[in-house]
Design a protein that fits this description.
The mean pLDDT is 92. The chain is mainly β. Strand 1 and strand 2 form a beta hairpin. Strands 1-2-5-6-7 form a five-stranded antiparallel beta sheet. Helices cover 5% and strands 56% of the residues. It has one domain. The protein is elongated, with a radius of gyration of 18 Å. It is built from one helix and seven strands; from the N terminus they run ββββββαβ.
């Protein structure tokens, strides 16, 4: 969830949402991330290069991500969300790292309460 910036990135996303009982909504997002240019870098959310292969030999495949999010509008100014995501690193990440270095899938979970102020 936003560990990387959109600089030098391309994405294919499939998304679906549906209503659940008691006013909840479920959303599922599937993402496929690739570099726009294999010889440019992969940048984090601060626009700092996390990795770069100037030759382009590491490829473009950053990886895929799936998100499951449950949300509910509590009232006119309050929303809640709970979600979990799993990122599966692609061949670029495996190729750019040192041989033998373990590359792990990343899973994270969040809870968010949003309160809109009225002035």
């Amino acid at each position: 969830m936003d560990y990387m910036s959109w600089q030098n990135m391309k994405q294919i996303c499939l998304s679906n949402s549906f209503a659940l009982p008691k006013g909840f909504t479920a959303r599922v997002n599937l993402h496929r991330f690739t570099l726009a240019s294999a010889s440019d870098g992969w940048y984090n959310s601060y626009l700092v290069s996390q990795a770069r292969d100037a030759t382009g030999a590491a490829g473009k495949d950053i990886g895929s991500e799936i998100n499951f999010i449950i949300s509910k509008k509590v009232d006119d100014s309050t929303d809640i969300e709970f979600g979990t995501s799993k990122f599966d690193p692609g061949s670029y990440i495996r190729n750019i790292n040192a041989p033998g270095k373990e590359i792990t899938k990343v899973t994270w979970t969040f809870f968010q309460l949003t309160k809109k102020a009225s002035f």
